[in-house]
Amino acid sequence: MTKIKLNGEEAHVEMTKGEFERVKELLGRDPSITELGAFDVMWSEHCSYKSSRPKLKLFEDAEANYDYVLAGPGQDAGVIDIGDGYALAFRIESHNHPSAIEPYHGAATGIGGIIRDILCMGVRPIALLDPLRFGKLKNNPHSQWLFKYVVKGIADYGNCTGIPTIGGEVEFDESFDSNCLINVACIGLGTIEDFKHAPSRAYNAGDYVILMGGSTGRDGIHGVTFASRTLTEISEADRPAVQIGDPFTKKLIIEATLEAVKTGFVRGLKDLGGGGLTCATSELTGDGNTGAKVDLRKVFTREPGMTSYEIMLSESQERMTFIVKPEGLDTVLDIFRKFEMSFAVIGRTNDSKVLKVFDGDNLVVNLPSKALSESPTFKRQERRPLYLDKLISQKTPDLTLDLEEIIYKLIASENICNKEWIYRQYDHEVGVRSVVKCGEGDSGVLRIIGTDKFISASVGVNSKHCFLDPNEGTRGGLVEECGNVIANGAKPMAMVNCCNFGNPEIPESFWYFSKAVEGMNDFCRTMRIPIVGGNVSFYNEDEVKKTAIKATPMIMIVGLIEGEKNIITLPFKKAGDDLFLIGETKAELGGSEYHSVIYDLEGGIPPKVDEAKIKATWDIMFELYRNGMVKANHDVNKGGFIITIAEMCFKNYLGAELDLNNCFDENIRDDEFLFSESYGRFIIETDTNDHDTILKLAKKYDVNVKKIGVLISNPEIIVKGLRNNDIKLDVQKLKENFDSTIPNLMEI
Amino acid sequence: MALQEFIVEVIITNKEKARDPVGETIKRDLLAKKGYDMVSNVRSGQYLRFNLNTESEERAKNIVEDLLNKLRIYNPVTQNFRILKLQKES
């Protein structure tokens, strides 16, 4: 908070004194109170990306470098051309702070916001995905409370709007005890025509500016400044900043908007989220190089007596701004009437390049339209935290415990166990597009109705790995999410990210962000995956422990599958089939679940990523797919490959007999081989007839491919060829451990 | 003191500054169907009635307030509750 003098009166703002001076310099006068509020919001970290923008410049050229990218970073969502005249839009963003205060409405309105972002690209939202982070559930009522209501908020909002929630990811870790992470992603589908109809810009003079949807109230004023501070500074007093969502109205807004876009009369479209009407009007005109005259008295307000300041800054939910051609005004308004949507024509665009906002006869905002969106940036200091060396030097203790007991324990741990408790609350099938159900594949797979194309989407990252090495961890996250879509048969097409970090003013926190962004950029350029959008959430700090959350650069990958026959699923299919482990297993236990669950260790060197090897692994997978040789596939993730095999046994209640002789290097220990989280590995099921061809291909691509065993009808997993004794696991018991953890902790 | 049966009625509403989608929908319907333009606002709420055996009116009220808060029967961030009526069961 900064105290400043405005027109002889004292005012409190979030901006710094330097920024206030810059505003005065820009205008050549003192701002009005409404203008000051507008600058304060638009120049906040959340709206302006002032700390992150210099770094995010790395991502800027996606549209130019990839011919199928239609919209890249800086737009409301990334959009790609998937052929047959269709455009796919997707975006991920955070709703961490509101959800940490009020999990139900916080999560629900997060879903509401991301749906609007997709909608304003002119396409229909068709799927949601939600990666989440909470403190550990065990003996932690606060975490359980957040978890229960966040999931319920997502479910209630998503289910009511008729959009399936097709995937997500969750980790439980102490660093998220009081600052949980709620990231929400949405995918939209439309024709390329639809997308071109509705840019989030007002390019033309003389068009009408229409506000449609819910009424404007005093709720949520300063929601974005709320997102740009740590939770300690605000919580209690600022609680009214939490919004209440209205999914049924949202459903009407979706239908009314899409119908209006189809008329061809809509020339610009923008949702009202953070920064409200201020953000929408200034970005529409600023980015479109036009101006506008707007009258706030036309805005339909929920309560009488709202000031121009309040109307401009309100973040009331369920509102959209339309820029409409004059000749189409009646047609568009009739569509709104048909859906019983409230609306108001609040002004018109012009070519003055100035945004003039009137409160009746009073001119309350008179600014160059670009002024608000061109905030100053900061070059933040970065410094590698000193504690990392000590953490990284931690060694895996000698293996003295029983391997069978370790595996039974690991599979029941919070980060590995079955997440059905979450996804059974979500409607993941509404819309009849869902092909691979939750739990039967590594990603969500959706049919593009009317074609033989399918899209696959996966989201997540390993926060423990990123905490130990943000660059390697982020690249690992990319390997993992790409691996998830590849496991279902899809080719990775594009990525969007949501960067969740601590306070950027602290050099150690900013270092994490900086390294993660560099990792993302390097990997995506090498692997030719366009980065088409992102969101940054800073100031995620634990108010009690005074530490930042574990760095979480959440990654979402969208892939494409051509032809239904090329969809691969996770469960093992038939006894007698061969099992292959594709990719190299190294002694990489740093930041693993094995370390944390069995030894309560956070450290060690996390897995490293070698792009050339990953590329070769993907290439061989696609060749195996082309040959139709893969019957089941699961990407190796938390807990290592033994956990992966167990998960693949569950659905059809099969077993596996593994012989690991000659499968691993002699200086790798049993536990290192079984529980390593080395990136870029898959377990595949294949017909025994294909055995020789597969090994030939392994040579051709120079990929580490090992036949590790065969499927058996007896539901047990037998592991031979270890340095210790053979082990024998009961699939039924593994499944019980896998299934019971969350229901037991949540008592339902 | 002998226990007596009390009835405590509670109404839970969204805070004044928060939205109320149910009330808004009812109001929109009234306007859409015409003839009720005089209705300028509709707010909805949730009604709860507790029957409980305890020593006094005061105690009955305290118990209900306590359980509303502790069990999060209402959401203190977005909602208020009001005790409508407190009476001895006859």
Short description:
The complex is a heterodimer of chains A (748) and B (90). In chain A, 59% of the residues are buried. Chain A has 748 residues and is α+β, with helices and mostly antiparallel strands.
Distance between the termini of chain A: 44 Å
Number of helices of chain B: 2
- Quaternary state reads heterodimer
Please report which band the strand proportion of chain B falls in: under 5%, 5-15%, 15-25%, 25-35%, 35-45% or over 45%: 25-35%
Shape of chain B: elongated
Going by CATH, the homologous superfamily of the largest domain in chain A would be PurM-like, N-terminal domain
Kindly state the number of beta strands of chain A: 30
| Shape designation of chain A | globular
Number of domains of chain A: 3
Query: Given the structure, what is the number of helices of chain A?
Result: 27
Instruction: Report the major sheet of chain A.
Output: 7 strands, mixed
Q: What is the N-to-C succession of helices and strands of chain B?
A: EHEHE
Order of strands across the widest beta sheet of chain A? 10-12-9-13-11-14-15
CATH topology of chain B: Mth169, Chain: A
Using the 3D structure, state the CATH architecture of the largest domain in chain A: 2-Layer Sandwich
CATH superfamily of chain B: Phosphoribosylformylglycinamidine synthase subunit PurS
How does this structure look, described?
- The complex is a heterodimer of chains A (748) and B (90).
- Chain A is α+β, with helices and mostly antiparallel strands and 748 residues long.
- Chain A has three domains: 66-197 and 422-513 and 527-565, 60s Ribosomal Protein L30, Chain: A; 199-374, Phosphoribosyl-aminoimidazole Synthetase, Chain A, domain 2, CATH 3.90.650.10; 382-417 and 570-748, Alpha-Beta Complex (Phosphoribosyl-aminoimidazole Synthetase, Chain A, domain 2).
- Chain B is α+β, with helices and mostly antiparallel strands and 90 residues long.
- Helix content of chain B is 29%, strand content 34%.
- Chains A and B meet through loops of A and α1 of B.
